[in-house]
Design brief:
This protein has one domain: CBS-domain (Roll), CATH 3.10.580. Helix content is about 35%, strand content about 20%. It contains five helices and seven strands; from the N terminus they run E-E-H-E-E-H-H-E-H-E-E-H. Helix 1 packs antiparallel against helix 2.
Length: about 140
C-alpha cells in the first residue's frame, strides 16, 4: 500500500472548527463531535492548525478564568497550542504518514494549494495493519 488516499476520511465526513469560532463554540463542537482534537480551517478551507481538549482547558484557565461569558468573547485562534498536527500532502510516503500518526490521533491531509481535504486517523492505519498481520480474524 503506497497511497495515503486509501486511508483518507474526506473533509465532508470530518468534524472541524472554523478559525473564527469562539472558545465556547469550539467547546460545544468538540462535545457534540465527541473528539479530543479537531482540525481548524479558515473560510477558504485551508488548514490552520489543530485544537485539542488540553488547549481548551488551558485557555479556559488562563484566558477565560472559567467564565463561560468570557469564553464567548475569545476566539480560538488566540489559544496557544501545545503542538500542532503538521499536515501532509497526498503524495506523502507511507513511512512518513505512519511516523506522524504514531505521535498524534490523526494526520491532516492538504492538497497542493494547502486546502484541507481530510484526515488519516491512527485507527485506520492500525486496522489496516491488523488485517495484514492477522488475516483470519
Amino acid at each position: 500500500m503506497d497511497n495515503i488516499l486509501f486511508f483518507l476520511t474526506p473533509k465532508a465526513m470530518c468534524a472541524f472548527l472554523s478559525d473564527d469560532y469562539t472558545v465556547r463554540q469550539a467547546l460545544e463542537k468538540m462535545e457534540s463531535a465527541g473528539f479530543a482534537a479537531l482540525p481548524i480551517l479558515n473560510k477558504r478551507g485551508e488548514y490552520r492548525g489543530t485544537l485539542t481538549e488540553g488547549d481548551l482547558l488551558w485557555a479556559l484557565k488562563n484566558m477565560c478564568y472559567m467564565d463561560m461569558r468570557q469564553a464567548e468573547a475569545r476566539r480560538i485562534m488566540e489559544i496557544s497550542h501545545r503542538r500542532d498536527y503538521v499536515p501532509v500532502r497526498v503524495t506523502t510516503d507511507m513511512q512518513d504518514l505512519v511516523k506522524r500518526a504514531s505521535a498524534q490521533n490523526f494526520v491532516p491531509v492538504v492538497d497542493d494549494k494547502d486546502t484541507f481535504i481530510g484526515i488519516v486517523t491512527r485507527s485506520a492505519i492500525i486496522k489496516y495493519c491488523s488485517k495484514q498481520l492477522f488475516p483470519d480474524e
